[in-house]
Design a protein that fits this description.
Length: 69
């Protein structure tokens, strides 16, 4: 009976070790994704600012009906 308990404990320890590694791997991915999201957000904000600057200098477009109307 002791062998069975030892085997079960060993199996549980291996399972926990695999879960710990999976959690560490997922955490690394989440951190990398967070950094990428922050980088993309900064770029988007910069581009939106540039578009806003360009819109200030563009003449307002009038809504004209197409020639076939």
């Amino acid at each position: 009976m002791t062998d069975t308990i030892d085997q079960r404990v060993d199996a549980l320890e291996m399972h926990i070790a695999h879960q710990d590694q999976s959690i560490e791997d997922m955490n690394a991915v989440i951190l990398a994704q967070g950094e990428e999201i922050e980088r993309l957000t900064r770029r988007l904000n910069k581009l939106m600012g540039r578009v806003g600057d360009l819109e200030e200098f563009m003449p307002a477009l009038e809504a004209k009906k197409p020639p076939h109307w």
